Design the sequence.
């Protein structure tokens, strides 16, 4: 026994010594290190031939030209297109996220039919022909029942061939209910229609402007065409020595306010009053452009109606009501600063007044825009270098005329369900935000039966989101064309997934706020990764499967041939360069610029006179927004805080974008709201602690982030978070600001013009 | 049951009692082993370390136990090089404590690196400019020396000593032990120093950076000094603790007191130099970097109290106790002073790693604090369990205290 | 050709020291133009295969080679001001290439390249001791606490030019060194010894929608950075530590320039 043990011990010792002095441990050491350098679970991206493809970004209305670097058939990098008139090589983080939309999570890999309850996330995969059959069965039935007008569509924009296809489908089919997602363009087109007679959104010659007063437009936080706005700002920074100046009017220190030469802090929502205050000083000091006012404007001086009554013109109305002292009381901006800014504005060359709060995506009160635009008229900076112009569109080849059978004709003649274009809102074209009120309240003329949604995510993006969702839930059949499982797709009954932006053709019309006509072409740079179809092709297929004359309006074989035909001779340029621009474009001369009946710039909106309660309502003016809720219950003002790093529209954040978001905005799944340290003391709030944020529309647990740059009494809530859809990289993070902010209706347009809400914050 | 292994003429507790004792400590070791496996298998995301605190509990523990383990080389240095003969009575124990400290430090280092399987790159791709390279080489060599010093102690085991070859080997080793002690001392001076250098060379970290004397920052010398000032105290503490647990006198009081006196005067010396260094750092080094001294102590736990605790409460007070004959001879005060002395050095190692990293250097950066999680705690404390086990085994089976018989008649 | 340019360089910036440096790549970031949008961060992460996790809100374990810091002037409303500091790796030259991180790396896994002035990182040699991270006052170095995971088909978008890093190693901005290699290879193939300014630009520079980042050879008077760095409003982060960084910042606002370094209470800033 003891011998055996000793033998064993000796053996072990011997073996140990033997192994130690053999090459084995060294070899093992080396091999294990080499193994760590080549762990099979750490990917090694395969190489291959590199190519660069030109295309255009369609993720926001910015219209940048981009290039995609490819290795064989893999798209690996998105870069800005050098020489593109909008972005000249620059690219934003959303644009670069297209790769994630292409390869990342939440992609819809083929047509889906709802299998469970709505929003439950249970789907049945069906083939494309079955999906098209499903929808044509539904649409044909409605036509037979004489209910074609109860079919509606909603698109993210009304520009470009795809949204035109939706419009055409509904017209050929027989429904007036074509909706676009509400945007600033809706209200600014109205304002420009009233003042200049052009139903068009505004273009700004930002690059050449030299004294910019931005009424809440966060020019470098994603406003307008973001990269172009950045580049313009850079230009101003370079020209600072020559006097280029940016005055930012905003309640909070946005990035734009921080970079501005002057930050005018103002009570939220009172920007129009300030604009009129500036106008007051300019008029009082007679520093406006007298020739322009005299020859090209209407309604500046007092005027007499056909009954002989004398009404105040813009001049007297402003002089009477908007003295710096009065405006100071409304806005909180000191009277002397109003005078200083007004003088600088009047004297500057290229003085430009810009509107559109935050990113400039939400509608504003039409009269607010008129008040701000009146400043541009006072200095006659319209259709001039460094001034405002109407957004120039690129002309395309018209489509063959629309064919409408009797059903289509009678269907389209029905009043729109949102009352846009009816006596209630004669000037508006689409009022999606009226829907909850009408559908839920039961006051709508008729219930909608089908909704086709493309490029929009109303289940997420609209104010008073809960009410919107409730209203949409009452529509029996929702069809989504989304390529990713967003909130709306999640609530759809049928999904016909579109290609992602890197897999499809699309025309990109002149980007919003551009002063140059530019068109870009988005092209498939990789072949479709999933069983998806171009939404245009889906629409053509649907049209062709419908009864009556619908198919006759769709003579094209597919979307690509439609696009080629539409772009005509520009196609070859677009194919080669990726963009087309009108080099020789100059905005119309003043004598040609104003297309209303008077042919003049109208301070007094004559179009409104007929329906107005008083002539005063036709002048630019400020009216205090009626925020819901009582001050004693909701002592604070909640405003949204928009950022480049958080996409808050129909296209959502990619993981890499979310990665850039500061921990003072999102910490784990908690959203942080910004409050001033003074507010925190007054309301017993502690930095980095949770609090309950309540508004008349909802409640949410949020984290407090103390920030000196925000006005005391104001709470800023970041937008773009609080998704309930997409993948784990986004879903469930933070709070959706739209749940907390209710709708405020603009009397003139019926648009939702909410810029904030009353709110309270209580420590929990 | 194991009586054949127990040194002749010495009394040890019954085996079941011993097994229970070892079992209890093994439980902690097992726990630490589980923590280590988790850290190796899932990566360092299982700890509370992060990009701002790349160094945390583990490096602090490493620096601290290596400083505490300095008793081994310094006692050897005093015994063999300076020829202070009394210390032979405690040298064995000091060597074993040192061996435990250094092996623990190496184990923790193996945990702390992100790619343990590539740890040997530090030798293969060595960067001679790096203090850490110097540390790695010196510690590995010195660990080998400690192991060699430990071998003859093991070979004195009753059964092993019966094997003629082993007996002869052990006998020969004894003769050359002085050489190893001297080598060990030399290596130790360097690695204690280079561990100090690790922090002192960080010219991007105003808190840690110290002015250089020739190629080394002052922390190089301060770490050596502080290690030899506290190491003996740690040896005293462990010895006294062993005596308390075994309820026996193991080392003569004069040996302990002599060690305490040495430790006390070294601490006085260290503190004087450290004060001068701190003053120079505060008055010259920091202002050059544009940093106010008080900015280095912005908020708890890194306010001025930590400095007062390190140099005052755990520095000046134990030093005073240890150098004063009357207080030193008071058993309670002696133990208190030893504890304070060791704590002071641990605080020093802690601030030189964690506080150095916690203080933001870029003016717009934020102050963050760091608290280790259970994986870091248990593995950092495991050396104590390891120490309990190895000391118990050594005490039970090896004749490590030459005075034991005479003190326990 | 470069030899003559070196004469003009200030001694402190360490021009001539016998290492025969050819280029000295660096950046000038105009903080008056930077909008803090974060596009540089995303451009960098896509270019360099930087992974992402489901939760990246703990900024202490979130890998961002380029990170945009936010500084405030500390004044109450309405005198508050903020400024963004995009922070790539500074590619410190220290004294003669002894960057804070390079000299401490025990395994020579990070090195100062005298040909380009770029501080490299060899992921397969790094064993993850994180000493370099402790040494870097800019927090420009990041540790791979996790194995990288690319969900769904996102592996498809990985670039073959930059190898994805395994768990347990340190990584950082390389000034898109692979782009330099590409440009140099192309130039050599065409029989040229020099690369032009446009041929080698970092991903962040290229992407920046505000054009706030300018990249080039600091030693070459024909490159824009050469002139920009000499502006009286140009400064470097934590210059006083002696890190000798190659990233310059530019701001006309004095508080921003002061925020770039540490100063004693009553000391005047640069």
Sequence:
């Amino acid at each position: 026994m003891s011998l055996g043990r000793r033998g064993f011990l000796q053996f072990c010792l011997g073996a140990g010594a033997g192994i130690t002095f053999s090459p084995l441990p060294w070899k093992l050491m080396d091999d294990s290190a080499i193994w760590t350098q080549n762990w099979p679970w750490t990917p090694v991206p395969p190489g291959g031939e590199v190519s660069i493809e030109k295309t255009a970004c369609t993720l926001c209305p910015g219209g940048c030209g981009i290039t995609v670097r490819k290795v064989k058939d893999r798209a690996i990098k998105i870069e800005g297109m050098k020489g593109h008139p909008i972005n000249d090589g620059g690219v934003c983080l959303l644009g670069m996220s297209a790769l994630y939309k292409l390869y990342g999570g939440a992609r819809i890999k083929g047509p889906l039919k709802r299998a469970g309850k709505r929003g439950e996330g249970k789907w049945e995969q069906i083939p494309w022909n079955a999906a098209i059959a499903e929808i044509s069965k539904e649409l044909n039935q409605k036509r037979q029942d004489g209910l074609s007008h109860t079919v509606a569509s909603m698109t993210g924009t009304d520009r470009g061939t795809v949204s035109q296809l939706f419009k055409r489908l509904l017209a050929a089919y027989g429904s007036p209910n074509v909706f676009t997602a509400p945007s600033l363009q809706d209200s600014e087109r109205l304002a420009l229609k009233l003042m200049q007679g052009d139903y068009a959104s505004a273009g700004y010659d930002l690059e050449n402007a030299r004294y910019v007063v931005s009424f809440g437009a966060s020019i470098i936080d994603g406003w307008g065409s973001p990269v172009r706005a950045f580049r313009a700002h850079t230009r101003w920074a370079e020209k600072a020595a020559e006097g280029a100046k940016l005055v930012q009017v905003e309640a909070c220190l946005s990035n734009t306010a921080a970079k501005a030469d002057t930050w005018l802090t103002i009570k939220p929502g009172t920007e129009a009053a300030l604009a009129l205050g500036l106008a007051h000083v300019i008029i009082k000091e007679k520093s406006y452009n007298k020739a322009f006012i005299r020859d090209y404007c209407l309604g500046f001086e007092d005027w007499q109606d056909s009954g002989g009554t004398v009404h105040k013109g813009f001049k007297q109305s402003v002089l009477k009501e908007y003295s710096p002292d009065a405006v100071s009381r409304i806005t909180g901006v000191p009277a002397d600063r109003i005078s200083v800014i007004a003088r600088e504005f009047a004297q500057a060359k290229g003085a430009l007044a810009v509107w559109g709060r935050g990113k400039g995506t939400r509608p504003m009160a039409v009269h607010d825009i008129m008040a701000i635009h009146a400043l541009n008229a006072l200095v006659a900076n319209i259709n001039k270098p460094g001034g405002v112009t109407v957004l120039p569109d690129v002309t395309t080849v018209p489509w063959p005329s629309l064919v409408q059978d009797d059903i289509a004709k009678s269907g389209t003649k029905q009043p729109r369900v949102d009352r846009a274009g009816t006596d209630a809102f004669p000037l508006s074209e689409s009022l999606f935000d009226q829907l909850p009120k009408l559908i839920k309240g039961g006051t709508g003329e008729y219930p909608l039966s089908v909704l086709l949604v493309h490029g929009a995510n109303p289940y997420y993006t609209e104010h008073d989101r809960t009410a919107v969702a409730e209203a949409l839930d009452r529509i029996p059949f929702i069809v989504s064309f989304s390529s990713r499982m967003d909130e709306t797709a999640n609530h759809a009954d049928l999904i016909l997934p579109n290609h992602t932006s890197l897999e499809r053709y699309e025309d990109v019309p002149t980007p919003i706020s551009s002063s140059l006509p530019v068109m870009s072409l988005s092209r498939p740079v990789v072949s479709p990764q999933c069983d998806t179809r171009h939404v245009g092709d889906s629409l053509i297929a649907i049209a062709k499967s419908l009864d009556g004359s619908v198919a006759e309006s769709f003579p094209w074989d597919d979307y690509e041939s439609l696009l080629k035909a539409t772009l005509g001779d520009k196609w070859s340029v677009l194919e080669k360069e990726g963009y087309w621009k009108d080099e020789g474009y100059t905005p119309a001369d003043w004598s040609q610029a104003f297309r209303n009946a008077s042919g003049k710039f109208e301070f007094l909106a004559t179009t409104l006179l007929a329906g107005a309660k008083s002539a005063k309502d036709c002048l630019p003016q400020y009216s205090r927004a009626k925020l819901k809720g009582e001050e004693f219950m909701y002592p604070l003002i909640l405003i949204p805080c928009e950022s480049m790093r958080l996409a808050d529209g129909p296209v959502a954040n990619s993981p890499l974008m979310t990665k850039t978001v500061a921990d003072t905005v999102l910490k784990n799944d908690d959203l942080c709201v910004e409050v001033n340290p003074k507010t925190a003391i007054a309301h017993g709030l502690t930095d980095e602690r949770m609090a309950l944020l309540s508004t008349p529309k909802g409640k949410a647990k949020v984290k407090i982030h103390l920030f000196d740059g925000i006005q005391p009494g104001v709470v800023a809530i970041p937008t773009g978070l609080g998704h309930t859809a997409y993948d784990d990289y986004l879903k469930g993070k933070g709070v959706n600001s739209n749940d907390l902010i209710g709708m405020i209706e603009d009397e003139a347009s019926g648009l939702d013009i909410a810029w904030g809400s009353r709110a309270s914050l209580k420590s929990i | 049951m194991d009586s054949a292994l127990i040194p002749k003429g010495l009394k040890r507790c019954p085996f079941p009692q011993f097994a229970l004792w070892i079992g209890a400590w093994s439980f902690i070791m097992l726990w630490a082993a589980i923590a280590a496996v988790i850290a190796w298998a899932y990566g360092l995301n299982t700890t509370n370390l992060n990009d701002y605190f790349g160094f945390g509990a583990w490096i602090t523990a490493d620096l601290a136990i290596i400083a505490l383990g300095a008793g081994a080389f310094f006692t050897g240095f005093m015994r063999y090089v300076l020829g202070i003969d009394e210390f032979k009575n405690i040298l064995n124990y000091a060597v074993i404590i040192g061996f435990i400290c250094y092996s623990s430090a190496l184990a923790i280092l193996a945990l702390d690196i992100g790619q343990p399987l590539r740890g040997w790159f530090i030798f293969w791709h060595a960067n001679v400019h790096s203090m850490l390279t110097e540390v790695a080489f010196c510690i590995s060599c010195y660990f080998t020396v400690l192991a060699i010093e430990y071998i003859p102690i093991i070979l004195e085991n009753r059964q092993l000593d019966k094997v003629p070859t082993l007996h002869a080997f052990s006998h020969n080793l004894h003769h050359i032990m002085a050489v190893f002690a001297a080598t060990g001392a030399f290596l130790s001076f360097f690695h204690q120093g280079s561990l100090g250098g690790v922090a002192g060379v960080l010219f991007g970290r105003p808190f840690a950076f110290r002015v250089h004397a020739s190629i080394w920052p002052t922390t190089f010398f301060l770490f050596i000094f502080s290690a030899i000032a506290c190491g003996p105290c740690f040896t005293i503490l462990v010895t006294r603790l062993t005596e308390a647990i075994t309820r026996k006198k193991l080392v003569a009081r004069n040996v302990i007191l002599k060690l305490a006196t040495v430790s006390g005067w070294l601490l006085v010396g260290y503190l004087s130099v450290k004060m001068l260094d701190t003053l120079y750092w505060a008055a010259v080094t920091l202002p050059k970097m544009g940093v106010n001294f008080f900015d280095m102590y912005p908020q708890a736990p890194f306010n001025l109290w930590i400095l007062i605790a390190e140099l005052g409460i755990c520095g000046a007070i134990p030093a005073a106790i240890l150098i004063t004959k009357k207080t030193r001879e008071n058993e309670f005060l002696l133990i208190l002073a030893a504890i304070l002395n060791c704590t002071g050095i641990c605080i020093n190692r802690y601030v030189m790693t964690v506080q150095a990293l916690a203080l933001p250097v870029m003016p717009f950066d934020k102050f963050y604090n760091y608290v280790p999680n259970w994986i870091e705690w248990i593995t950092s404390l495991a050396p104590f369990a390891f120490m309990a086990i190895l000391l118990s085994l050594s005490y039970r089976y090896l004749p490590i205290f030459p005075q034991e018989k005479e003190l326990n008649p | 050709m470069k030899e003559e340019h070196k004469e003009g360089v200030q001694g402190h910036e360490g021009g001539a020291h016998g290492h025969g440096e050819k280029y000295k790549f660096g950046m000038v970031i105009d903080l008056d133009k930077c909008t803090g949008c974060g596009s540089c961060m995303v451009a960098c992460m896509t270019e360099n295969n930087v992974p992402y996790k489901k939760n990246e809100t703990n900024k202490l374990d979130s890998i961002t080679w380029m990170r945009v810091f936010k500084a405030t002037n500390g004044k109450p409303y309405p005198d508050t001001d903020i400024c963004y500091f995009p922070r790539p790796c500074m590619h410190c030259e220290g004294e003669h290439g002894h960057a804070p991180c390079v000299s401490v790396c025990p395994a020579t896994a990070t090195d100062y390249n005298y040909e380009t002035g770029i501080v490299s990182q060899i992921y397969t040699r790094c064993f993850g001791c994180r000493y370099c991270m402790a040494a870097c006052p800019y927090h420009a170095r990041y540790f791979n606490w996790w194995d990288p995971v690319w969900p769904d088909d996102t592996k498809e978008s990985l670039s073959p030019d930059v190898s994805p890093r395994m768990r347990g190693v340190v990584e950082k901005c390389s000034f898109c060194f692979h782009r330099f290699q590409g440009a140099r290879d192309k130039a050599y193939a065409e029989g040229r010894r020099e690369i032009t300014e446009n041929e080698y630009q970092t991903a962040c520079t290229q992407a920046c929608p505000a054009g706030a980042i300018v990249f080039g050879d600091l030693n070459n008077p024909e490159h824009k950075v050469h002139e920009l760095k000499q502006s009286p409003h140009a400064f470097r982060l934590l210059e006083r530590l002696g890190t000798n960084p190659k990233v310059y910042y530019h701001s006309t606002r004095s508080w921003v320039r002061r925020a770039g370094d540490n100063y004693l209470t009553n000391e005047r800033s640069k």
Remarks:
- Chain A has four domains: 2-37, 112-185+402-503+529-578, 202-390+588-618, 636-763.
